């Protein structure tokens, strides 16, 4: 059988993209409905349409896909499979006619999308009247774009006229196939390079699509289901826009596109916005009449900040649009998204349609009635449509991601923004209005419509007394076996009140309340808490609850800060109370005295504006702060919460929280005002799921307030409905998750759950959300809800402007619940309690919560988070949440908390407390296996210093009395490791026993087995030095550092020590100098005639690196790509910014040119994907390779990956695509490899004696430098810079305090002595070094050369010491052995000495100064450097007393050194 021969042509790039898209959706249809007015000859019209079809090949094209081929071929047929039908609608009334037209238009669209052949062009003629028709044309979008549909109207009208005249078309249009072939050829031509480079250099892959917080789902793999909402601009605004466009010499397209960018920026809060703009693909006149899919949506990005003016943004976007139009043919999808899955992600789009034309053909008028064109996916698209005398804004959106209500609001926001631009064109874009009067009224009035008239003339204890009169014999409070009726409780409170008045308690006097909530101490203790609160309030005073678990110092601080003169407590706690003038009353032993007081209700002296209580909360300054709450605020809360929760009278309430916080106040006060029975649950019962369930079974509870994590922990142990109250469960104190809600609702479907939110500063609670049984769960956490009665809430931006619904902002709370402020902290009160900018009353205030929230469509608020916790480990700044989030990504981890711990040696370590899933624990049955899995998981995701040294397995995380994570109760990893017991192998020899004891002491562990790994137990580089010092003292043995890497267990190390000749494998460095043969320049290097536009810098987070980055920003206009290890671009950017700020180098005007490149020197391709590596290789013009793993204690083997292999990857990058110069920053230490007989080492002196180099770090730099030289021989332009000891900035004194030199100075000052030495000290100020390197690197003559970057004017060590002494520090110069012995003794006694980490390198006499430039034997020449800088003002400041004084002053000013006693 003959095989079929198929003549076909490849698709255009536009068709290829659409072909991939339509595999997932059938929505891609183009359709136009043409209104024909006049007497129409239907047969002629049908002939006219056929003529148009025959005239344009694309309308006769079908698509044929061969097996195994990704894309089909387009085949042009002799005739087209055209469908034509006529439908008579004349008998329908006008309104019915309109509905029928809409129905038929939709039906036609569906018929095309569902066609299996996808090659059908459909014509449907609707007859409405004798002189009125609608012609519907529908076809797949592979055939047409929006411009095509407009052309079809023109073509058919012209064809109709020609057919009536018996004529034919005379011109021949450009066929789509011609366009398609031209487009494909264009991309392969040599001339395409400029156009392709334009798009590649935009680096769109690094810009995230704008994420709008009000999107319904972030799963963009849902079906693409577009919907449309149209809104016409008012006529007067349309006229004003026309005037604005003319006045500002712009056009409608750029004006509306700029407005769209600004709105998306305001709503997404992303610093750079990417929007896909429509280009019609017909910039050449010959293509204007072409039918087919020529158009593209191409990305344009725009960085925005609040300070920009509209005109600036307009100018930027206009230029970007102009360039995009110029290069539109060269855009490829790979320029923005690398994988097919990314191709399917949903952008935000924009297009502008010009005024559609109307055509007349022999008395018949052809005009567009309706148009639908869809050939691209999007989540949101603005289409601005020009009509004859109006402007329509059409918002197309993916209905899976947005509700109609959200889009309608978005449309209003856009119109408001446009109006604001026209009205106030000169205000900054951050101040342009986007909230219209309707939404503003909703935010200010409707959402805050909470005014309720509650009685305002009473205090809480008066409400209680009223309740006593109503229910005197009802049980008021229960604790264990003890209970009091309302009358009994009132009697005891009255006696106490009378007694307290006699002690001087009156309004505004704070009385301390320091009583335990434990049934194991005193059975009546917690009853006394309630008695005490009522007694204090009745006396006129205010109570200050204090947690019995407080450390003595913390308790003393609070008592002193609050000026407590009377303290109510119990006998067992007296020993914890500091001795001062406070009057102490023990409620368990002093009642005999108190009972003699008046039992009647006292006349109230307190007024609603007087204090009711003060509660301490944590403070950012390190000390807690007391929040002052008044009676009127508490009473408003009681009324409001009773109404909101619909609390029943005479119900039963339970509190499981400490009295020292206000969490339990939600049930305590309402219970005592409604005749309720308040159950105070002992602490040990509240923490025991079974005990609590048993109690609730015995004492049924109607209302319970509890922290979500507390309840989660209880339910994890006992899945029982008995823990759930009968009527309502109130969650509060932290964010609630839907998983917990689902769990509760399954256990107890009849229980109503409330989420309750409110800072202490707003009196217990301000917002409440009633969780329905069936909810869509549109928010990531359970909403906070809506404000209580007489409470006002605002979501504001940094300028205190309202943010729209759905957009994040900070929550501000006002109204009747606002506390008075903070005790003794007027400045903090002023800062956090600000004037209400929306109130006419100048006295109205708002509390700045610091909580990030957003409004949901229904007016409920959703919590979005707060600031991260931050710690420092060995000088590295770490966000603990970042580590927790990483570990949580492991499928076997259920809950995790990461903390820092400090042992007796002040060694701070990271500890991860893990609750694993049962399945994970089952698979990995011992601690060691679990810890190894999690550690390996972290190794892949976190830098070394951010990996927890210990993983502690817990069954559940401990909780505070308040129900939150109890960090203090987390087990101490230094003291016990029960998980190791099953794997513990005891020492077998005396040597192993001694080693195990040393390890346990240094690591702070109870015991260490002989097979435990030093590093897995928490060891790190700073601890190695302590270990080696111990081994040296006890065993009189000198061990090289690398031994511990080779022998990391007790058993291995013992075997090494037993060998008197420690086996250390000498590395043959010469054999390491092998550069990958594949690293050969792609082309010959041609020096650039223009300055570089993109520079790669490694090591920007190092000390010298920060100054190099600063110099590059100042001396070039290029973008600086900084290779950096980080999880996200945001973290990387913040780290770079903080780094520059710490060295006083931050320049806000340059921040947009600093571009983080997330990668890793120690990984192949620098940790980048192959595509990203190639992209960077094409983009970068010059490389400054300054990055290295700098560690003077690690062996070569530990540093090779980053320092040697990393350099090889840099050279690979330099050779790929285009050849780039590499400026390599080495170290002066490599000259140790020169001939030792030479007296002078020049920059061109061979350094080929690698065996002379001993330090692992210098070895790695020597090998790396040799690789660079080999690359230079292969044709890569290189230059090498060998800096000596880099010291601080000669102008500011800013220095790297962890540097060897500054550790030496600080350590000697702390020790009070220095070693005698006759060496010269050579310190090179970092500002000179960075200026010299950047200047020299920019000179073409520098290529191929080596430069020594050292100080030509060193100073004798003796003179350095004298300068320090003259500054005021007493130093005694002693012989080196004596000094070293003194240092070792000091470090053994106190490891805090700055020299502690370097003690291993200071062991031998020759180790004191290891840098060759310090050696008195060999001189180092720097002629290349001096010659290269001769014509500049760049000179190295001499090392003298002035320079040393600058450094010492910086160290003192920043508290790294104490001010000397003899220096002012």
Map the helices and strands.
Blueprint: E1 9-10, H1 13-21, E2 29-37, H2 42-55, E3 61-64, E4 73-76, E5 82-88, H3 94-113, E6 121-129, E7 132-140, H4 146-164, H5 176-186, H6 192-200, E8 226-232, H7 235-247, H8 252-268, E9 272-279, E10 296-303, H9 310-326, H10 340-343, E11 348-353, E12 359-361, E13 364-373, E14 380-386, E15 391-398, H11 404-423, H12 437-444, H13 460-470, E16 475-479, E17 482-485, H14 486-502, E18 510-513, H15 525-538, E19 542-545, H16 552-562, E20 566-569, E21 583-586, H17 591-594, E22 611-617, E23 625-630, H18 631-645, E24 652-655, H19 665-673, E25 677-680, H20 683-686, H21 689-698, E26 703-706, H22 708-717, E27 728-732, H23 738-747, E28 752-757, E29 767-771, E30 786-787, E31 791-796, E32 809-815, E33 821-822, H24 826-832, E34 833-835, E35 845-855, E36 861-865, E37 870-873, E38 876-879, H25 880-888, E39 893-902, E40 908-916, H26 918-923, H27 927-939, E41 950-953, H28 990-1003, H29 1021-1035, H30 1042-1046, H31 1050-1058, H32 1069-1072, E42 1094-1098, H33 1103-1115, E43 1119-1124, H34 1129-1142, E44 1154-1158, H35 1170-1179, E45 1182-1185, ...
Parallel strand pairs: 5-6, 9-11, 11-14, 16-25, 18-19, 18-20, 20-21, 24-25, 24-26, 26-27, 27-28, 40-41, 42-43, 42-45, 43-44, 45-46, 46-48, 47-56, 48-53, 49-52, 50-55
Antiparallel strand pairs: 1-4, 2-7, 2-13, 3-4, 6-7, 8-15, 9-10, 12-13, 14-15, 16-17, 22-23, 23-33, 28-29, 29-30, 31-32, 32-35, 34-35, 35-36, 37-38, 39-40, 51-54
């Amino acid at each position: 059988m003959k095989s079929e021969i198929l003549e076909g042509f490849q698709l255009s790039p536009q068709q290829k993209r659409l072909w991939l898209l339509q595999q997932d959706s059938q929505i891609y249809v183009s359709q136009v409905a043409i209104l024909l007015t006049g007497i129409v000859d239907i047969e002629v019209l049908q002939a006219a349409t056929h003529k148009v079809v025959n005239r344009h090949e694309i309308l006769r094209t079908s698509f044929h896909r061969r097996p195994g081929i990704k894309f089909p071929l387009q085949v042009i047929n002799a005739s087209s499979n055209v469908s034509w039908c006529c439908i008579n609608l004349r008998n329908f009334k006008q309104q019915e006619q309109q509905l029928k037209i809409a129905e038929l238009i939709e039906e036609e669209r569906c018929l095309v999308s569902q066609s299996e052949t996808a090659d059908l062009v459909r014509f449907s003629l609707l007859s409405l009247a004798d002189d009125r028709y609608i012609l519907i044309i529908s076809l797949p979008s592979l055939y047409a774009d929006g411009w095509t549909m407009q052309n079809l109207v023109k073509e058919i009208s012209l064809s109709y006229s020609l057919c009536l005249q018996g004529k034919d078309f005379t011109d021949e249009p450009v066929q789509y196939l011609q366009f398609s072939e031209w487009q494909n050829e264009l991309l392969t031509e040599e001339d395409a390079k400029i156009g392709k480079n334009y798009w590649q250099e935009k680096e769109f892959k690094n810009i995230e699509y704008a994420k709008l917080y009000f999107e319904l789902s972030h799963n963009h793999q849902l079906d693409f289901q577009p919907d449309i909402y149209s809104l016409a601009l008012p006529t007067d605004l349309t006229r004003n826009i026309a005037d604005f466009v003319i006045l500002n010499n712009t056009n409608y397209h750029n004006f509306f596109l700029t407005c769209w960018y600004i709105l998306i920026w305001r709503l997404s809060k992303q610093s750079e916005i990417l929007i896909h703009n429509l280009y019609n693909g017909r910039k050449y006149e010959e293509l204007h009449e072409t039918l087919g899919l020529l158009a593209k949506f191409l990305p344009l990005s725009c960085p925005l900040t609040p300070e920009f003016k509209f005109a600036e943004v307009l100018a930027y976007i206009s230029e970007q649009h102009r360039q995009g139009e110029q290069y539109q043919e060269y855009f490829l999808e790979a320029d923005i998204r690398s994988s097919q899955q990314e191709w399917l992600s949903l952008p935000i789009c924009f297009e502008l349609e010009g005024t559609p034309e109307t055509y007349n053909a022999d008395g018949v008028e052809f005009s567009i009635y309706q148009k639908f064109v869809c050939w691209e996916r999007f989540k949101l698209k603005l289409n601005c449509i020009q009509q004859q005398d109006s402007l329509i804004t059409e918002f197309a959106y993916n209905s899976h991601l947005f509700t109609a209500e959200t889009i309608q609001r978005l449309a209003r926001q856009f119109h408001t923004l446009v109006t604001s631009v026209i009205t106030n064109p000169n205000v900054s874009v951050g101040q342009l209005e986007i909230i219209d009067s309707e939404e503003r009224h909703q935010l200010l009035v409707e959402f805050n419509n909470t005014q309720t008239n509650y009685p305002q003339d009473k205090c809480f204890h008066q409400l209680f007394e009223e309740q006593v009169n109503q229910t005197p014999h009802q049980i008021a409070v229960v604790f264990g076996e003890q209970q009091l009726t309302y009358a009994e409780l009132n009697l005891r409170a009255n006696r106490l009140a009378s007694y307290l008045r006699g002690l001087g308690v009156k309004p505004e006097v704070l009385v301390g309340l320091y009583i335990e909530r434990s049934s194991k101490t005193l059975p009546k203790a917690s009853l006394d808490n309630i008695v005490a609160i009522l007694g204090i309030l009745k006396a006129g005073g205010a109570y200050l609850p204090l947690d019995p678990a407080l450390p003595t110092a913390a308790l003393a601080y609070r008592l002193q800060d609050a000026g407590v003169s009377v303290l109510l407590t119990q006998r067992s706690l007296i020993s914890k109370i500091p001795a001062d003038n406070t009057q102490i009353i023990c409620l368990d032993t002093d009642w005999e005295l108190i009972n003699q007081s008046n039992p009647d209700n006292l006349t109230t002296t307190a007024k609603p504006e007087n204090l009711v209580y003060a509660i301490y909360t944590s403070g950012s300054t390190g000390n807690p702060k007391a929040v002052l709450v008044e009676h009127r605020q508490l009473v408003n809360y009681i009324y409001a919460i009773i109404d909101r929760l619909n609390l029943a009278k005479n119900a039963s309430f339970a509190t499981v929280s400490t009295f020292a916080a206000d969490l339990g106040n939600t049930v305590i006060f309402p219970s005592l005002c409604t005749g309720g029975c308040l159950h105070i649950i002992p602490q040990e019962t509240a923490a025991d799921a079974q005990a609590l369930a048993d109690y609730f079974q015995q004492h049924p509870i109607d209302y319970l307030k509890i922290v979500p994590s507390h309840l989660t922990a209880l339910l994890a142990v006992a899945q029982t409905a008995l823990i759930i109250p009968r009527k309502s469960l109130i969650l509060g104190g932290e964010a609630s998750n839907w998983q917990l809600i689902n769990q509760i609702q399954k256990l107890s479907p009849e229980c109503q759950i409330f989420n309750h939110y409110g800072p202490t500063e707003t009196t217990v609670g301000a917002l409440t959300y009633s969780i329905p049984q069936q909810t869509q769960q549109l928010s990531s956490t359970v909403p906070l809800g809506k404000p209580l009665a007489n409470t006002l809430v605002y979501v504001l931006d940094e300028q205190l402007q309202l943010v729209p619904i759905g957009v994040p902002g900070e929550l501000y709370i006002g109204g009747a619940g606002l506390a008075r402020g903070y005790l003794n902290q007027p400045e903090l009160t002023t800062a956090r309690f600000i004037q209400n900018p929306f109130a006419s009353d100048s006295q109205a205030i708002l509390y700045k919560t610091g909580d990030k929230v957003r409004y949901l469509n229904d007016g409920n608020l959703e919590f979005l988070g707060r600031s991260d916790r931050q710690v420092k480990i060995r000088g590295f700044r770490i966000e603990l949440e970042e580590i927790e989030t990483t570990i949580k990504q492991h499928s076997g981890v259920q809950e995790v908390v990461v903390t820092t711990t400090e042992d007796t040696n002040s060694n701070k370590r990271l500890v991860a407390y893990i609750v694993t899933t049962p399945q994970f624990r089952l698979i990995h049955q011992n601690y060691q296996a679990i810890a190894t899995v999690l550690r390996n998981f972290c190794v892949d995701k976190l830098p070394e210093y951010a990996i927890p040294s210990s993983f502690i397995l817990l069954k559940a995380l401990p909780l505070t009395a308040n129900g939150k994570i109890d960090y203090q109760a987390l087990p101490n990893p230094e003291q016990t490791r029960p998980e190791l017991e099953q794997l513990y192998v005891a020492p077998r020899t005396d040597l192993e026993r001694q080693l195990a004891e040393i390890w346990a002491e240094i690591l702070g562990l109870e015991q260490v087995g002989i097979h435990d790994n030093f590093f897995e137990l928490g060891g790190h580089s700073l601890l190695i030095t302590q270990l080696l010092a111990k081994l040296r003292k006890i065993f009189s043995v000198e061990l090289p550092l690398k031994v511990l890497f080779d022998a990391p267990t007790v058993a291995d190390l013992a075997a090494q020590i037993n060998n008197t000749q420690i086996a250390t494998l000498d590395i043959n460095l010469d054999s390491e100098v092998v550069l990958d043969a594949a690293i050969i320049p792609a082309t010959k290097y041609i020096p650039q005639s223009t300055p570089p536009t993109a520079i790669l810098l490694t090591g920007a987070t190092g000390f010298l690196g920060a100054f190099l980055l600063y110099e590059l920003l100042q001396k070039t206009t290029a973008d600086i790509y900084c290779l950096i290890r980080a999880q996200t671009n945001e973290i990387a950017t913040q780290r770079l910014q903080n780094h520059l700020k710490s060295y006083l180098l931050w320049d806000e005007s340059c921040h947009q040119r600093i571009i983080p490149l997330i990668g890793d020197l120690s990984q192949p391709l620098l940790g980048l994907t192959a595509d990203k590596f190639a992209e960077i290789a094409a983009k970068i013009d010059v490389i400054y390779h300054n990055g290295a793993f700098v560690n003077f204690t690690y062996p070569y083997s530990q540093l090779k990956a980053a320092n040697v292999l990393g350099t090889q990857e840099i050279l690979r990058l330099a050779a790929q695509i285009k050849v780039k110069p590499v400026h390599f920053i080495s170290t002066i230490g490599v000259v140790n490899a020169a001939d030792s007989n030479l007296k002078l080492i020049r920059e061109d002196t061979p350094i080929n004696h690698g065996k002379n180099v001993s330090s692992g770090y210098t070895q790695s730099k020597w090998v790396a430098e040799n690789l660079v030289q080999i690359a230079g021989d292969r044709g890569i332009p290189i230059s090498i810079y060998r800096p000596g000891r880099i010291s601080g900035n000669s102008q500011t004194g800013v220095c790297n305090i962890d540097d060897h030199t500054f550790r030496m100075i600080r350590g000697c000052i702390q020790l009070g002595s220095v070693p005698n030495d006759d060496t010269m000290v050579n310190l090179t100020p970092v500002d000179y070094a960075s200026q010299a390197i950047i200047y020299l690197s920019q000179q073409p003559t520098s290529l191929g050369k080596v430069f020594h970057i050292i100080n030509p004017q060193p100073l004798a060590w003796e003179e350095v010491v004298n300068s320090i002494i003259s500054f005021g520090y007493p130093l005694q110069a002693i012989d080196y052995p004596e000094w070293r012995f003194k240092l070792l003794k000091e470090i053994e006694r106190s490891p805090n000495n700055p020299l502690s980490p370097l003690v291993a390198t200071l062991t031998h006499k020759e180790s004191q100064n290891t840098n060759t430039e310090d050696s008195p034997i060999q001189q180092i020449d720097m002629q290349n450097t001096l010659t290269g800088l001769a014509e500049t003002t760049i000179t190295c400041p001499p090392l003298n007393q002035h320079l040393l004084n600058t450094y010492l002053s910086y160290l003192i000013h920043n508290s790294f050194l104490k001010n000397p006693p003899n220096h002012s």
